[in-house]
Amino acid sequence: xxxxxxxxxxxxxxxxxxxxxxxxxxxxxxxxxxxxxxxxxxxxxxxxxxxxxxxxxxxxxxxxxxxxxxxxxxxxxxxxxxxxxxxxxxxxxxxxxxxxxxxxxxxxxxxxxxxxxxxxxxxxxxxxxxxxxxxxxxxxxxxxxxxxxxxxxxxxxxxxxxxxxxxxxxxxxxxxxxxxxxxxxxxxxxxxxxxxxxxxxxxxxxxxxxxxxxxxxxxxxxxxxxxxxxxxxxxxxxxxxxxxxxxxxxxxxxxxxxxxxxxxxxxxxxxxxxxxxxxxxxxxxxxxxxxxxxxxxxxxxxxxxxxxxxxxxxxxxxxxxxxxxxxxxxxxxxxxxxxxxxxxxxxxxxxxxxxxxxxxxxxxxxxxxxxxxxxxxxxxxxxxxxxxxxxxxxxxxxxxxxxxxxxxxxxxxxxxxxxxxxxxxxxxxxxxxxxxxxxxxxxxxxxxxxxxxxxxxxxxxxxxxxxxxxxxxxxxxxxxxxxxxxxxx
Length: 489
Ligand code: NAD
Known about the structure:
Largest sheet: 7 strands, mixed
Radius of gyration: 23 Å
Structural class: alpha/beta
Oligomer: single chain
Helix content: 25-40%
CATH topology of the largest domain: Aldehyde Dehydrogenase, Chain A, domain 1
CATH superfamily of the largest domain: Aldehyde Dehydrogenase, Chain A, domain 1
Number of helices: 15
Number of strands: 22
CATH class of the largest domain: Alpha Beta
Shape: globular
Bound molecules: nicotinamide-adenine-dinucleotide
């Protein structure tokens, strides 16, 4: 398995690898760098700047200095920046997709799909930029008027994960720009390159110096905690794991920072006895195997009505067996590697734990013996409630099948988790669909479909899955502050 020779020389040498502070590409203090690996080979792709806390501080100070001028741009001017960014995404699509695949491992067709989604999010928030409304009304109690306006919340810290490096970053950057907020974005150390390339694209689209700054670091806590506690920022928007989110919320409490948190999930996927099995299996394939299962919306617990279980298992294994696992740049590959060794160890431990608690291993279950961090499609059946997999997300290509018989019982088991990001329901009964969708304790529900995230929809979690929403009008509201002006006549 090799990466074709034409790919690296063309894209990687030209890709930005430094910090972007106040409109200038800058080396980290003392020229420090860290390595970015190709998960498909385990080899080093390149090195990028490893910011110090002082570098991070300079980035945030640049965002603070740029805030009032950026907020003073008209909404139409900020919209035009986003429209130019949209055109540049189309122009640079192949380069960006290649970078995504090289650093994250996902197959090239998935990276291209991520770029389609990025374009949709930019388009959406370009439209939102000019639709921020206030109100003007009589004050019912006194001789006066009530004016309500929305203002940019202020300099924002954006921290993003490695699983969808670009589409997760754009969910924050596009609304921040639309709302008139300056920012410091910090991508995950596994996948810094796509975000740096995107920040360059934003600068080329006309984002003024200081309005978007990018900091890459191998020491996230050391660099970001002082920024969060500094009092210079007014917003923290984070996507990542729940334990890190909880830690950041504690840090943000000191300055009472406005926080948006897109955290982990433990999605139930419920297939009722009256489901269309073709639809359910198709949906599960996309839901579970996209990005090798490293998706916060991925089904963690697949509850299948006992009468369908044998047939469902047969169809799922039949669909998984011919998947082609390999380097994301190679033709015909349908499943890439996991992002790093840590993920491989995590997935292996979850599978071993489930088997240890009595689950039956139907297929897969052991990492592939080849360079890179490959874990095969895996199916477990009759996973018991005592397995770790029932409580924490596996974040890998593992289908955990659990039988059920009664609707009330499966809803209760689906809700028996600290998380509440997304749930999936498969049934041909409209009444049951509505009843169960309303009873499930999650921010999003997929009814007879396995994907739920769209730029025009408010996406977010309940319980330990998060705070706030990304997408829709709610997504820009996260970057706006409401101001009330009491006017005396
Ligand atoms: P992670 O929490 O380890 O890291 C997320 C980001 O936070 C990265 O940029 C990381 O470098 C940074 N980070 C880590 N520790 C930090 C600290 N102490 N201070 C500041 N920054 C820190 O998560 P991950 O492993 O990159 O991503 C996987 C997790 O993200 C999964 O739990 C997944 O469910 C979740 N996720 C959620 C959503 C959503 O929309 N709810 C979307 C994608 C991923």
